[in-house]
Amino acid sequence: MQQDHRFPGVTEITPTANIRVNAHGGRAKCLQRLVRLGLPVPRTEAIDFRSVSALKSGQTLDFDAIFGRMDPDLPLVSVRPSTAQPDWGGPSTVLNIGMTDRVHAMLRGSIGAAGADAVYARFIQSYALHVARLDPGIFTGRASVADLLRAYEDAMDEPFPQDPGTQLRAVLGAMALAWDGATARLLREARGAPADAGLGLVVQQMVLGVGDRERGESGSGVIQFVSSSEGQPQVTGRYLNQSQGREALLDKVPALYLTRDPRGPSLEDRAPEIFAALQDHGALCRARLREEMQIEFTVSHGRLNILDAVRVKRSARAAVRIAVALATDGIIPEPEAVLRVTPRSLLDVLHRQIDPEARVTPVTTAIAASPGAATGRLVFTAAAAQAAAARDEPCILVRRETTPGDVLGMHASVGILTKRGGVTSHAAVIARGLGLPCVVGASDLVMDRKAGTLTAPSGVVLREGEEVTLDGSTGQLIAGAVPLLQPSMDPALGTLLAWADERRDIGIRANCDTPAEARLADRFEAEGIGLCRTEHMFFEDDRLTLMREMIFAEREQDRRAALDRLLPVQRGDFREIFQIMAGRPVCIRLLDPPLHEFLPTDRAGMAQLATALDLPLSDVQDRIQSLSEVNPMLGMRGVRLGLSVPEIYEMQARAIFEAALATEPRVTPEIMIPLVSARREVELVRARIAAVADAVQAETGETLEYRLGVMVETPRAALRAHEIGEHASFLSFGTNDLTQMTYGLSRDDAGRFMSTYVSQGVFEEDPFLQLDTTGVGELLEIGAERGRTASPDMVLSLCGEHGGDPESIAFCRKLGFSYVSCSPFRVPVARMAAAHLAI
Ligand code: PEP
Ligand code: MG
C-alpha cells in the first residue's frame, strides 16, 4: 500500500511509495532516493501540491494522526518546502512542531532542562515569526520560556497553542499562503517557474541534535565532499555540537571542523565512526544519485540521522570539474556531463569575476557588453590609456563612444566604459574580441574631460586617475578595488569541450582581427577564422600614417605608392595569422569602414597630421570635411569604397595571395566582400581580384587557390541572394548590420532606449544580442534558400555577434549552416551550445 488512504494527499516516504517530482516536489523525491539507498532518514511524510493548495481553501488533513505515527518519546516534526525545481524558493523550514508544555516537561526528563528549554524557545519564536507573523522585536530582552510564552500571549491575546494538531495545521496553512505571496511568486517566476507552480511539503520526525551530554555526541551540520568554488574533492561543511537545524551554518556560532584539524576540535575527533559513516553516505549518494550532494545531518546521542540532501551549490568552474569527474569515474555518460554545464556559464570560467562574497555598491549600472571584471585607474583618452600601460598601470578607458582610432588605447586598457552604444557598438565588438570587460550605454554618467571627472546621478564624483572596478558581466561600475576571482582554462574544461566537439554538428569559427586574437582562437580550438576585419590592422602608429597618406593622395599613382608601403605590413599580418591557424580556414574581409574613421577628429590631431604630410592645416581640415558623411554607416563604406578606390582591395588581395603562397602548410584563403547589395558589385570586385590572382601567379609561377564570398548584411543582399550568389562560393550573414538595417535601428545608438524597449516588452530581447528569428531570421531563411539556388554547394554561415549566442546558434543549425563565427572568448560557449543542440 503506497498511498495512505486514510489521509489522501499524505504519503509516507518509503522505498516503494509513489512519490513524484511533479506532484510532491524535488525534496520529497530526493528523500525517497535516500531512503532507497538505506540511509538513516527519520520517518517522513510527503504532502502533495494539490493537498497543500487545498489547505488554503479550508480543506484539512488529519493532523493528529500524523503525530500519531511519529515517535511517542519525541512527538515533534519539522516541515520543509518541496518544489518541482530547487531554485524556485519556498517558505522557510519550521522545526519542533508539536512542542507544548507537556512535551517540554517530558524533554526536561530525557535531555535535560537546558536542552528542552532551548528547543521550546526556538519553536515559540519561529512559530511567532512564520505563523502568527509577529514582529521578532516583541521577544527582545526575553530569554526564559515563560517570558517568551507571555510575550506571545500579550501580542496575540491568546495563549500559545498547546495542541500539536493545531500547531501543525497552522504551520502548513501559513506555508501554503506564503507560497502565494506576491514576492514569492515574482521571485520564482523570474527563475522560470510557471504561474501555477505547486508547493509540496515534507513533514519529518524530528531528531534532536540537542541532548544529554552524558549519553554521547549530539549536534547537527552539513557536509559535502567537493569544493563549491573550485569543484575539487574536499570535505567541506560545518558541524556544531548541541545544535539543531542549520544553526551550524550561522556565522556567529563557532562551528567545529569536520576533518581533523590542528586549529581545533573536529567531528572526526569527537565521533570518528559518525564521520566515517558520513563519508560512506556521501560516496553512495555520488555513485547512485549520480550527483555531488550536500547532506544535512543530525547526531543524536551518538546516532547519525540524514535529514535531507541537496545538490551541491557550485560556481561555473566547479560545475565543469564535477561533471567531468562524474563522467571520468563512469558514473554518468560523457554526453550527460556536457549537458550538465550551461554553455553561457563558461564565460564565467574564462574571465575574471568579482568574488561573489564581496559586497559591492555600484556607482552606476549600464549595459553589460563584454564579460569579466577588472580594476584600474580611470582614463578618458586612448593616449592616456597607452601612457598608463607604458607605466604598467592598469587602466579603465572611458569614452563617449569608441572609434577605430581608440583601438590601441583599448588594447592598453583592462576595461572599457562608454556613455553611448549598444551590444554591437564598436567598443563592445572590440572588447569582446580582446576579452576585455566592457560596459556601454552608461548615459547617466556626466563626463567632464577638462575637469577630469565622471559624475553619477547620485552625485558621486570619480576623478581621472582614481581606481575603479568595471564588471562587464553585470554592467556595473564600482568605485575602488574589489576582490576578483581569476579565470582558468583548466584541463577539465578542455576535456569537456572535447566531448562536446565529438557530438556537435555545426562548425564554430572565431572572429579574429590580429595575430594576437588568432592565438586566442587557437587556444580555444576554433575550427578556423570566420571573419578577419582587416581595418583593425591599420591602427598602429606607422600604419595609420601610411593609411592617412593614402587617403590624402590626390592622384592614383600617389595612392598606389602609399598602398605599396602598406602591402608588406598587411602581408606580414596575414602570413602570421595563416601560420597560427596552421591549415585551418581563414576568411578575410576586405576593408569595410568609411575612410574618415582613420582620420583625426580634434585640432591637435589634425595639426600633427598636417606636419606629417607637410600640408597646411586648412588643407587637412578641408579634406577631412570633404570625407565626412551625414550617415556614414550607410555611406561610402564596404564594397562601395572598394569600387570607388579599387586600389585598396587590389592591395589587400595581393597581400592575401602572397601571404598564402608563403605559408606552409598551404592555405586556401577565403576573401569576403562587405556590405554588398547588388550582383554587379560582386562581379566587379571578383574581376579585379581575379586579375590580381593572375598577376601573382604569373610573377611566382605558382598556382593559387582561393574562395570568394559575400557578406550578406543588407536586406537586399538576402533578398537577391540567388543572383549575388552566382559569383560567390560562400555567403556569410553579417547579422550586426543586417539587424541594424532590418529594424532601421542604429547599432551605435540603440543602447539609449534598448532597456526601455525590453522592459516594456516591445522587444523580447535586444536583437543585437539574440537573433530576431522572426524578422531578421526570415531574411536569413530567404537568403539561405535563394543562395542555395545559385549553387547547391553554397557554404552558409553567420559571423555577426550572434554567433556566440546559444539560441541564435540553434537557429543557424536549423537552417543547415556550415558554421557560426564569434569572438574568440565565446568559442567555448558556442562549442558547448552546439553540442547541447545535437545531443
Ligand atoms: C556584421 O555586420 O554582422 C559584421 C560581422 O560586420 P561588422 O560588425 O564589422 O559590421
Ligand atoms: Mg557589418
UniProtKB/TrEMBL annotation:
Q: Which residues form the active site?
A: 426, 799
Q: What keywords sit in the KW lines?
A: ATP-binding, Kinase, Magnesium, Metal-binding, Nucleotide-binding, Pyruvate, Transferase
Lineage of this protein's species?
Bacteria, Pseudomonadati, Pseudomonadota, Alphaproteobacteria, Rhodobacterales
Q: Which family does it belong to?
A: Belongs to the PEP-utilizing enzyme family.
This chain belongs to the protein called: Pyruvate, phosphate dikinase
Which residue range or ranges hold the PEP-utilising enzyme mobile domain?
A: 393-475
- Residues forming the PEP-utilising enzyme C-terminal domain are 493-837
Molecular functions per Gene Ontology: ATP binding; kinase activity; metal ion binding; pyruvate, phosphate dikinase activity
Role, per record? Catalyzes the reversible phosphorylation of pyruvate and phosphate.
What does the entry list as the binding residues for substrate? 533, 589, 713, 734-737
* Names of required cofactors: Mg(2+)
What's the source species for this entry?
A: Palleronia salina
